[in-house]
Amino acid sequence: DKGNHRHFMQKEIYEQPIVVAQTLRSYLQRLEGKVALPIPDFDLSGIKRVTIVACGTSFYAGMVAKYWFEQFARVPVDLDVASEFRYRAPVMEPGGLMIVISQSGETADTLAALRHAKNEGQTIAAVVNVPTSSMAREADLLLPTHAGPEIGVASTKAFTCQLSVLAALAANLAKAKGRLSADEEKQIVRHLAEAPAAINGALAYDEAIEGMAGAVAGARDVLYLGRGTDYPLALEGALKLKEISYIHAEGYAAGEMKHGPIALIDEHVPVIVIAPSGPLFEKTVSNMQEVQARGGKVILISDYDGIEAAGDGCIATITMPKVHPLIAPIVYAVPVQLLAYHVAVAKGTDVDQPRNLAKSVTVE
Ligand code: M6R
Question: Which residues of the chain have pLDDT under 70?
Answer without folding.
Answer: none
